[in-house]
Amino acid sequence: MPKLKNLTPPPPERRKRRWLAGLRNNFFTGLVVVAPIGMTLWLVWAVTGKIDGMVLPFIPETFNPKSYIGIDLRGIGVIIFLIFTVIIGWMTKGIMGKSLLNLGEDLVDRMPVVRSVYNGLKQLAETVFAQSDTSFDKVCLVEYPRKGIWAVAFISTTTKGEVNQKIPVNEQMISVFLPTTPNPTSGFLLFVPQSDLIDLDMSVGDAMKLVISAGLVYPAEKNTDQPSLPLEVPTE
User: Fold this and answer.
1) Which of 7, 125, 183, 184 has the fewest beta carbons under 10 Å from its own?
2) How many structural domains compose the chain?
3) CA distances from 19 to 9, 13, 24, 28 (A)
4) 227 in a structural domain
5) Are the CB atoms for 157 and 236 separated by under 8 Å?
6) Domain that includes residue 174, residue range
7) Are 152 and 141 spatial neighbours (Cβ–Cβ below 8 Å)?
C-alpha cells in the first residue's frame, strides 16, 4: 500500500522562520543589485557637486545660470571645467602656450617648497593621464612569496640595463608587476626568469577583477582544447 504524504500543515513557528528566511534572502539579493547602482549615483552626484562648488564661485553673475532661472543646476561647473581644460590644452600645444608654461615652471623651480609639491603632482598627473601605448597587455602566474604558492602578475617588459646585467642568471629576465589585493594600484616590481612564468589567457581586465575581488570573481573559462600560445613579452 503506497505511503500517504503528510498533509499536516507546518506549525506556525516553522512557517514564520521560512517567511523570515525568504525575506532575508530577498533583501540581500536586492542589496547586491541596488548597492552598486546607489553607490555609483552617489559618487557621481558628490563629485559633480564638489567640482561645481570649486568652479562656480569664479564665474561672474552674468554668466551664472542661477541668475536667470533661480536654481542651481548641478553639473554646470563640470561643463565649464571641461571646456576650460580643453582650451588650456589647446593653448599649451602652441608656441606661445609652451613659452608661458616654461616661464611659469621656471618661476616655480625657484621656490623650494612649492617646487617639490608641483613636481610631484605633475609627475603623478603625467603618469595617470598621459596618453601612451605602454600598458600591461599580458597576465601571468609567478611563484610568490615562495615556491609552491602562485600569484597573479602583469608582465611589464623584458628587463634591461644594469638590473639585467647584474642578475646572475643566464636567461632572459622579465619585469612583472605583482598587485596587492584589493588595491591593485600598489604592489611589487619583480624580476623573474622567463621560464618561471606561466602565461594566462585571461585579459588584463579580468585579472584586475580577480585581484580586486580577492578571488571571488573568476573570468569565464575559455576553450582548453586549443593549444596555449607561447609567452610573448613586450620589449619596450
Assistant:
1) 7
2) 1
3) 14, 10, 9, 14
4) no
5) yes
6) 139-212
7) yes
How open is the CA angle 113-117-118, to the nearest 5 degrees?
Answer: 110
**What is the structure's pLDDT at 98?**
83
- Say what the pTM is: 0.50
Would you state the pLDDT for residue 141? 96
How many percent of the chain have pLDDT more than 70? 85
Highest mean pLDDT pick, 17-21, 39-43, 108-112, 124-128? 39-43
SS3 letters for the chain?
CCCCCCCCCCCHHHHHHHHHHHHHHHHHHHHHHHHHHHHHHHHHHHHHHHHHHHHHHHCCHHHCCHHHHCCCCCCHHHHHHHHHHHHHHHHHCCHHHHHHHHHHHHHHHCCHHHHHHHHHHHHHHHHHHCCCCCCCCCEEEEECCCCCCEEEEEEEEECCHHHHHHCCCCCCEEEEEEECCCCCCCEEEEEEEHHHCEEECCCHHHHHHHHHCCCCCCCCCCCCCCCCCCCCCCCC
Other C-beta atoms closer than 10 Å to the C-beta of 159 total 22
Residue 130 has pLDDT above 70, yes or no: no
In a domain, 185, yes or no: yes
Task: Residue 187: name the closest of 231, 230, 147, 136 by CA.
Answer: 136
In a domain, 195, yes or no: yes
